Amino acid sequence: MSTPAAATDTPRTTADTTRSRNPLVRFITLDFMENPALKDAGLLVLRLGMLLLFFHGWAKATGYSGFVGMMSEAPVGSIAPALFGFMVVAGQLLLGFGLAFGLMTRICAFLMALMFVFIIVLFNIPGGWIGEHGGIAFESSLYYFVPGVTLFLTGPGRYSLDYLLSRK
Fold first, then answer.
1. CA 121/CA 126 separation, integer angstroms
2. Do residues 128 and 137 make contact, with C-beta atoms less than 8 angstroms apart?
3. Which of 13, 81, 94, 112 stands 20 to 30 A from 52 (CA)?
4. Helix (H, G, I), strand (E, B) or coil at 130
């Protein structure tokens, strides 16, 4: 007597589907790397990369008067260069630090993505879509926008202050 197929079917886990594939396919898709610890390590590397944002803000803070002067020459920055300059410097310092250490990660990531949307729309695009060396004029801003969206969607991972604080 056979049992109906629906009665014996169980949900397949990632490990089950990995074992059932062709070894060549498993190698090409790097299935052996399906490990939560590796994903958390990848998020750590991405977050530590946001220290670049902190140092970017630090450079602006140390040359603040020159940065505000540059802001006053931008189409939108000329409205309130000191205010825009302060917001950019404070945002880059605080958000870069928060993301690197995984502190209030989703909030920092959302604010960083939002900040770079404003930078793209208000400062980069008015100067033209094509940069002086070809390519997209706001390419460097995208390098911060994309990790911001990614970290907002994924969270910080286990190797973060957020994780440590949530466990206590």
1. 7
2. yes
3. 81
4. strand
Phi/psi at 134 (5° precision): 85, 175
Q: Can you give the C-alpha Rg of the chain in angstroms?
A: 22
Q: Which residue has the tokens 């009665």?
A: 7
pTM: 0.77
| Ramachandran assignment for 103, one of left (phi > 0), alpha (psi -120 to 50 degrees), beta (any other) | beta
Tokens 């706001």, residue? 138
Residue showing tokens 């260069």 = 81
Which pair of tokens denotes residue 124?
């980069």
Span 80-129, pLDDT tens digits: 888 888 988 999 999 999 999 999 999 999 999 999 998 888 877 776 77
- Tokens for 114, please give them: 């939002």
Residue 145 in contact with residue 120, Cβ under 8 Å?
yes
Tokens of 65: 């008067």
Q: How far apart are CA 46 and CA 124, in angstroms?
A: 24
